[in-house]
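Consider what follows.

. . .
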Amino acid sequence: MEKKAKDSKIDKARDNSPNQNKTIPIVEESLSFDKVREETAEVIISKSIQEFEESLDIPLKKDEININRVKVGKVVEQYPTVREIDGKTIILIVREELVVTKRLILEEQIQVTKSTKEEVERITETLRKDVVNIDKKKF
């Protein structure tokens, strides 16, 4: 409707002849519009779960430990420390051992001297003796 009214004003302004002094209105057309929301379709949305298998290669690291026991049997004066040589951690195991020693200690010296002394002692004793008598007779 609005467009028709504007068109008629423009047409009237063009009909005027150029020899007359008239005021000519300057007209500009414009558009206007209205929005109307209209349902054109209905959408139903549903959700479902699908199960499927998928394989995936995952690089995993696993540390392996090798233990090597080495008998040493060496006497040490102090506790040794843990050390690392060529990527090997060396842990030294120490045990205490009670050491009992047996020693000879010279306590004293005894000196013995032998001497011979002669003494005279008088003793009296009765002694016996067998005596054989032989008598010879002549005939």
Q: What stands out?
A: The first helix runs from residue 2 to 15. Strands lie at 83-85, 88-90. The CA atoms of residues 15 and 67 lie 114 Å apart.
